[in-house]
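Run Centaurin, alpha 1, isoform CRA_b through structure prediction, thanks.
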Amino acid sequence: MGANQQSHKGEILLSHAMPDSDWEREHQPRPESRSQVLGGVWTWTTGAPTEDGTPTFLVLSSVFHISRIFMTSHGNEAARATFESKVPPFYYRPTFSDCQLLREQWIRAKYERQEFLHVEKQEPYSTGYREGLLWKRGRDNGQFLSRKFVLTEREGALKYFNKNDAKEPKAVMKIEHLNATFQPAKIGHPHGLQVTYLKDNSTRNIFIYHEDGKEIVDWFNALRAARFHYLQVAFPGASDADLVPKLSRNYLKEGYMEKTGPKQTEGFRKRWFTMDDRRLMYFKDPLDAFARGEVFIGSKESGYTVLEGLPPSTQSHHWPHGITIVTPDRKFLFTCETESDQREWIAAFQKVVDRPMLPQEYAVEAHFKHKP
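Sure, done. The structure for Centaurin, alpha 1, isoform CRA_b is below.
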């Protein structure tokens, strides 16, 4: 591909940038697209343009010539076996549903930087310590300001400082309760990362990004590495396969619903909801630092049920498609704007209710504060 395709306003996003073997592993059909072979590895361009109308081209022309002879002779499967030979167990392997940044950096890490052939190139996310500046959204004013972040596995914490020379951190986020998930659309930046942690048994959100895509993905994998090493100590008998799904998680569902209060006579109000594992949180704004309320959703064996619709006497709701969540303590009433939203929320809730609770989840349930 020409140099003009490699740079447009300094940034070109990938779309579906995986060799055939990677896509086959995900068991997902490719979208309508045009294929091209670079050095024996299939790459793809799609018709989906960026916001300014530029097609999303795969920008890896310099990546593949390094191993052109090898891959032309041996094919994609051998290439994958070679270039993924030393992937750390904690390193996030993106799927078809992940954001473009994760897919792009996965390809670049494998073929361009060859991080999984040379272990020394994994230092940015594998040493147990990382320090740097990130753009963080202010809790009150919504402005993104540069802040110093320090990740230290020895202290089991991610910290950030309002000033570079500050001795005391503004916040200390324990690795034990930390989660990170990419949220480019919500944050309004293609490298946007949402980090959550527990503060006084309530969820606190911070929203960060880095202008360099590799930097923010390295931070993401460094957080996963710290979580991995923490869990190895906490659960010494667990296998890597048991621990990896616990390193970070994407939300089961997010979006707007209406809710009413505990008396069920209050007016319904539109709120932003996030289903994070068994925590259903609601916010006035999607980028709020703290939830207005949280609901623990347990299993059906523990008396939790999801019902379509609302009790017959319910009034004052604007949206027509109701959902009732029955817990041992009370009923929670929600409404959705569309029937498809209702179906998606019910499916997300049902997935949680159908899953048996783990021993540690009973402890969370016991200490959880149900907030209307």
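The chain has three domains: 3-121, 127-243, 253-367.
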